[in-house]
């Protein structure tokens, strides 16, 4: 099959993007790959042997010539750029920040992957490019330059040399705006969102509840034809905003994102509109409580940073020297300061946190005790069981049985 000149030009442009970004670039037509640079790009789907031609991502359709930044459940990032109703450019996977231990552990838990995959996953993520906001901005500019919205790009076999037809501008935005105006609907004012973010960040519960009530007195955006699904989508968006506000208020990203994941799972399981509305208030209050808890910690900046580093590397090998290097102090000084401020030794704290986090796999997975012990860097299964009993008051098997 001989493709037209526009097709060949499109492929040349894709190759330019690939060599500019060093990130995989693929062109899909009707969800099937037409061309890929490199020929077999890395992906979690390939790593996990998921047989699917199209990447594991969800994006808004009919947004032609608009860059969409997408993150999937594996923390892989993609830039999606629709050319028309059948053809789409996908740049990725890449990362928006370096993959660290705590984030990888969350990924394994969220996607119910085997903990034996940890090193394989870390090796995979170490090979992905990291594109920050600035780099993504320039990729957006490059795409808009190479594929202006007045170009007519189709990948079917060429039967005509007429290039006068123009790709129509997507009408979804205008249709949605028109419908919203007919129903006298407007999105909640941006300033109200900023006010509730401020109250969460500052840990002011009554004021946050009041603003949320004011927002909810307005009609919600229609995010799905199904009212229940629309409300769930709205609450997931709210949860994302509350999570970022809590992190700005001093909650560790690890704790905030874990809380966010728990709320999103609860949103998905809840099928009552009234219960979902109440859940939104509970989300606000819980995030504010976490902010206030973070403020009550009277630890010095060195100890706070030490704790954060430990929580983010619980399934990594941790040495006193590595931790001390991270907070720029001598190991002996850190050890003495930690014991003085926290009341237990640094390594007692590490073991306690590892035991607490390991309970997730006992509750929600069938991983063996030996594999869980190895994942959290315990020297052997017996020592893990001994420490588990010390901090939890029972054996790992007893804990698993009591939570099943």
Automatic annotation (TrEMBL):
Provide the HTH araC/xylS-type domain boundaries: 304-402
Upper lineage: Bacteria, Bacillati, Bacillota, Clostridia, Lachnospirales
The name on file for this protein is: AraC family transcriptional regulator
PANTHER family in alphabetical order: ARAC-FAMILY TRANSCRIPTIONAL REGULATOR, HTH-TYPE TRANSCRIPTIONAL REGULATOR EXSA
Keywords attached to this entry: DNA-binding, Transcription, Transcription regulation
Statement: the UniProt record of this protein carries the keyword Transcription: yes
Tell me if Transcription is a UniProt keyword of this record.
yes
Q: Which organism is it from?
A: Defluviitalea raffinosedens
Entry superkingdom: Bacteria
Output the InterPro entries linked to this UniProt entry. Homeodomain-like_sf, HTH_AraC
